[in-house]
Amino acid sequence: MLEVQNLSMRFGGLLAVDQVSLDVREHEIVAIIGPNGAGKTTVFNCMSGFYKPTGGKILFKGGEIQGKPDYKISRLGLVRTFQHVRLFSRMTVVENLLVAQHRHLNTNLLSGILNTPNYREKEQKSLDRAAYWLDRVGLTDMANREAGNLAYGQQRRLEIARCMVTEPKLLMLDEPAAGLNPAETKDLNQLIISLKEDYNVSVVLIEHDMSLVMDISDRINVINQGRPLASGTPDEIRRNDDVIKAYLGEA
Amino acid sequence: MQDLLYFIQQLINGLTIGSTYALIAIGYTMVYGIIGMINFAHGEIYMIGAYTALIAITGLAALGIAWLPLILIVALVCAMIVSSSMGWAVERVAYRPVRGKHRLIPLISAIGMSIFLQNYVHLAQGSRNIGFPALIEGGFRFGAEDSFQTSITYMQITIFATTLVCMTILSLFISRSRIGRACRAVSQDLGMANLLGIDTNRIISATFVIGAALAAVAGLLLGMYYGSIDPLFGFIAGLKAFTAAVLGGIGSIPGAMLGGLILGVAESMTSGYLSGEYKDVVSFGLLILILLFKPTGLLGKPEVEKI
């Protein structure tokens, strides 16, 4: 579904990402791990169109997407979250989910002013979808609160719900468990698995929480100092000497 | 008793002017809220609204139409259409190409646009004052015959009522409609809104169009209220409305409404109790004070980054 081939990203004299390749198949959770500063988020930024890579190719559903503007990539069904929460914090929880469906509504101004049946039907549909996802991430009671007033873990879940109402094919999560307590991480764990199982979404995630990564990933890519170090199933990665060295330092 | 009547008179005058400031200020505050720039050509959009209304009124008079509601509605619709198109075109031509560049660049582009539009109207319509027919005359008077009488004219009532209707529609539009929702999202995080598939260019255009339409309403109302217009008509009104927007908290729509009313009342109180010469001193003095002591304005919220 997604294929990254020999991706390189150079900032002036710094080669932040060097010849990284990875692929994501349908119905799969792939993790990108590596020490701090390894270039994981840079890879993400290239994939989501935030940066224009200086080398390599990124194919999504067969089409090249490297260098395309981020909003075009997201319209193809490749949506991401950021390391820090980026909700519309002064809008209510349900409004956050409605506004994300703006494009899908595809109605014009006039039908809104006249409140035509067609407009109302579409509004109702997006409201239903919002309600469904609120229930799914356990935020129904918070629907009319301002998003900025939610607890951090709830904001994280709302972000995922907001991605999901756009009906993505591939979800990219940048450190989804950062700042969550163990109970919240466990909830998140189940949520991500269910995205794959029940909604047929592939997930790429960057994560430092190893228990989460090992639990849910189908495959793991390890990056160190911008270069690919290893890739394989969680078991293979756990036994890989290079990975152990990179994480623990050479003795 | 007489003092009270005098005070009430100043209050009525102030609220009248203030509500038109508020109408113009909406345009400044919405544009600032969404793309963080001051649209200095907004005063000119308002002036063009007034001219268009006058042309429409003159045209209808030439056709021999004398039914007042029809004249007002046609003038209003014409002014709104022309101003909105201008607002849209100004953004498209002068601001969109320089969006995302250094902050000063759109600002200078806006000042250039303002000078251009002003001079265009100078050339097209002449630089002298043109009389604006009052159309709505008469009013109520309160107080004894032989002493000071408070008066409230039908024109003033029209201004209040129109402003109230416009503000109500705007508030409902922003809080309820799909595009209003998208406007709020874009103003909070343009990049994210873009990522979520909102056509941010269209939303930005919509903001300019809405602001310009409200300015056109103010143009018609103030043209009738003052009785004459000239190509510089938009300049001071624009500055005042900008002050109102900053006073209320730029970026905040209720702030612009409140700021307009406060500024209008402050001005009329100064003219009534001190001297008309001082009213601009007071309004721009207020601007300086607010910038010194509460730069985010009365209703503006300071941005707090949560980490």
Explain what you see.
The complex is a heterodimer of chains A (251) and B (307). Chain A is of the alpha/beta class and 251 residues long. The mean pLDDT of chain A is 87. Chain A has helices at 40-47, 70-75, 93-99, 102-105, 109-114, 117-136, 152-164, 182-199, 210-216, 234-239, 241-248, and strands spanning 2-11, 14-24, 29-33, 55-60, 63-64, 78-80, 170-174, 202-206, 219-224, 227-232. Chain A starts with a strand and ends with a helix. Chain A has 2 domains: 1-77 and 168-251, Rossmann fold, CATH 3.40.50; 88-167, no CATH class. In chain A, a hairpin with a 2-residue loop joins β9 and β10 (227-232). The longest helix of chain B has 34 residues, at 2-35. Chain A binds chain B through residues 70-71, 74-75, 79-80, 84-86, 88-91, 95, 98-100, 102-105, 107, 109, 112-113, 123, 148, 162, 166, and chain B through 177-179, 181-182, 184-185, 188-189, 191-199, 206, 301, 306-307. Chain A: Keywords: Amino-acid transport, ATP-binding, Nucleotide-binding, Transport. Chain A: InterPro entries: AAA+_ATPase, ABC_AA/LPS_Transport, ABC_transporter-like_ATP-bd, ABC_transporter-like_CS, BCA_ABC_TP_C, P-loop_NTPase. Chain A: GO terms for molecular function: ATP binding; ATP hydrolysis activity; L-isoleucine transmembrane transporter activity; L-phenylalanine transmembrane transporter activity; L-valine transmembrane transporter activity. Chain A: It holds the Pfam family ABC_tran.
Report strand % of chain B. Answer: under 5%
Number of domains of chain B: 1
Q: How are the strands ordered across the major sheet of chain A?
A: 6-7-8-3-9-10
Global Rg of chain B? 20 Å
Order of helices and strands of chain B: HHHHEEEHHHHEHHH
Number of domains of chain A: 2
Task: Determine and state the CATH class of chain B.
Answer: Mainly Alpha
Quaternary structure type: heterodimer
